[in-house]
């Protein structure tokens, strides 16, 4: 299977994993910023999203993780800094579970390490059916002001439109397969204290999906992790407040030596 991806800049590798139901274009502000500042930034479309075709009825996080490391093998990249947002953060944790020796540092944005609850599994299964039945547009209309804050929708309509476009154009089959796989994700909480690489946890202060308390929980379990709260952002601080998000990442990356 051919993976669509962006690859910009040169230097140590920074790999960016997008969330659901988005595509690699959500990382455009980071791709441009860090690709021009001494990093080789790689941002792939996940299986079933963007220009990476869906296959099968369920995509476990392990499959996403192996897709990413397989792509990096093709690119000749052994070790890398790995950043993921929301579902992308869970995939980043899965990469760490499978291939910890390949990760130089870890950035977890607006995500949760916990296994899905029984209610959550039911909800994801029902949502998968709904997306196949209705397509993504009704869902996109419904959740836009949770993905980005209402203030962002008003002040930055081009950002809101970008987020809405990513959601409404996502493949229903790909999104449904990911939802089914994510419903069965493992519990990463016991792994967090075993992380031995530098880690940064980032969250928008208005995130309803993964609130500040969840980020604080994750931060508390990873040895020597850093925590940054981005003001004025909901679930996508990298798009809503790219300057603040990039500044936090740059400070963290500069500290890696």
Can you describe what's shown?
With 257 residues, the chain is of the alpha/beta class. It has a single domain (5-254), classed as Alpha/Beta hydrolase fold, catalytic domain (Rossmann fold, 3-Layer(aba) Sandwich). It is built from eleven helices and seven strands. The protein has helices at 28-35, 61-74, 87-98, 118-134, 137-147, 150-155, 157-168, 172-183, 212-221, 237-240, 242-254; strands at 5-8, 13-17, 40-44, 80-85, 103-109, 199-204, 226-230. It has a seven-stranded mixed sheet, sandwiched between helices. α2 (61-74) crosses α3 (87-98), α4 packs antiparallel against α8 (172-183) and α5 (137-147) packs antiparallel against α7. It is globular, with a radius of gyration of 17 Å. The protein starts with a strand and ends with a helix. The relative contact order is 0.17. The model has no long low-confidence stretch (mean pLDDT 96).
Features:
257 residues, Rossmann fold, 11 helices
| CATH class term | Alpha Beta
Average pLDDT taken over every residue: 96
Give a quick account of the main beta sheet: strands, pairing sense, barrel closure: 7 strands, mixed
Tally the beta strands. Answer: 7
Number of helices: 11
Termini distance? 36 Å
The stretches of 5 or more residues where confidence is low (pLDDT under 50) are none
Mass-distribution shape: globular
What fraction strand?
Answer: 5-15%
Rg of Cα set: 17 Å
Strand pairing plus helix content: what structural class? alpha/beta
- CATH architectural grouping: 3-Layer(aba) Sandwich
Q: Give the domain tally.
A: 1
What's the CATH topology label? Rossmann fold
């Amino acid at each position: 299977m051919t993976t669509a991806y962006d690859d910009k800049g040169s230097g140590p590798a920074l790999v960016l994993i997008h969330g659901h139901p988005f595509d690699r274009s959500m990382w455009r502000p980071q791709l441009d910023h860090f690709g021009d500042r001494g990093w080789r930034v790689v941002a792939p479309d996940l299986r079933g999203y963007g220009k990476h075709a869906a296959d099968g009825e369920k995509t476990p996080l392990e499959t996403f993780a192996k897709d990413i490391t397989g792509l990096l093998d093709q690119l000749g990249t052994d070790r890398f800094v790995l950043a993921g947002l929301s579902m992308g953060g869970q995939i980043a944790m899965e990469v760490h579970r499978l291939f910890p020796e390949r990760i130089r540092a870890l950035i977890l944005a607006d995500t949760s390490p916990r296994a899905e609850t029984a209610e959550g599994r039911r909800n994801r299964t029902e949502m998968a059916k709904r997306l196949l039945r209705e397509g993504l547009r009704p869902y996109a209309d419904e959740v836009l002001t949770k993905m980005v804050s209402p203030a962002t929708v008003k002040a930055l309509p081009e950002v809101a439109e970008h987020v809405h476009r990513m959601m409404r154009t996502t493949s229903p089959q790909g999104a449904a397969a990911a939802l089914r796989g994510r419903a069965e994700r493992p519990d990463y909480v016991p792994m967090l204290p075993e992380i031995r690489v530098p880690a940064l946890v980032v969250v928008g202060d208005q995130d309803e999906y993964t609130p500040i308390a969840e980020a604080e929980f994750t931060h508390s379990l990873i040895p020597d992790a850093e925590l940054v709260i981005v003001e004025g952002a909901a679930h996508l601080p990298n798009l809503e407040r790219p300057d603040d998000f990039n500044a936090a990442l740059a400070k963290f990356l500069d500290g890696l030596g």
